[in-house]
Amino acid sequence: MSAKLKNEYDKDFYAWTMHNAALIRQGKFSQVDVENVAEEIESMGRSDKRELVSRLGVLIAHLLKWEFQPERRGNSWKATIKVQRLRVKRLLEESPSLKHELESKLADAYKLAVLIAAEETQFLETTFPKKCPYDFSQCMRENFFPH
């Protein structure tokens, strides 16, 4: 790897990405900043996992609020639930291998959901079940709104 590429990675990430993409397209693999390219690809994969947990967390938080605060139910919560379902579905379509991690990611998302729901409802975290009361298929079911 050239010093120029290393400098681009540290100083101008966009220029580094464009330069490496051009080198790959030209078949100049020996000139590619392989280590940093590999690191960035792995980072993109981790980003999808984080997005899955985040979106499931928001979805489950709103399902909890729907269930535990029925007097506050409204179109805004319903819209958030529908949007997050759509975005989770799209993410899993784009990265289907994430489906193999749903069980553990659902547990992570539930921890986040409890924090969100507790903050937004002003309920204690202990108000909510210790384990997620919904399975993934329920969370994603279009007409599922807990009562």
Care to describe what's here?
The protein contains six helices and no strands. Helices cover 69% and strands 0% of the residues. Helix 3 (34-68) runs antiparallel to helix 4 (75-94). The chain is elongated. The protein folds into two domains: 1-32; 45-140, no CATH class. With 147 residues, it is an all-alpha fold.
Report low-confidence residues grouped into runs of 5 or more: none
Distance between the termini: 59 Å
Strand composition percent: under 5%
Determine Rg (CA atoms, Å). Answer: 21 Å
Descriptive labels:
147 residues, mainly alpha, elongated, 6 helices, 2 domains, 69% helix, single chain
SSE topology:
Elements: H1 3-11, H2 13-25, H3 34-68, H4 75-94, H5 102-121, H6 136-140
Quick recap:
The protein is mainly alpha-helical and 147 residues long. 69% of the residues lie in helices and 0% in strands.
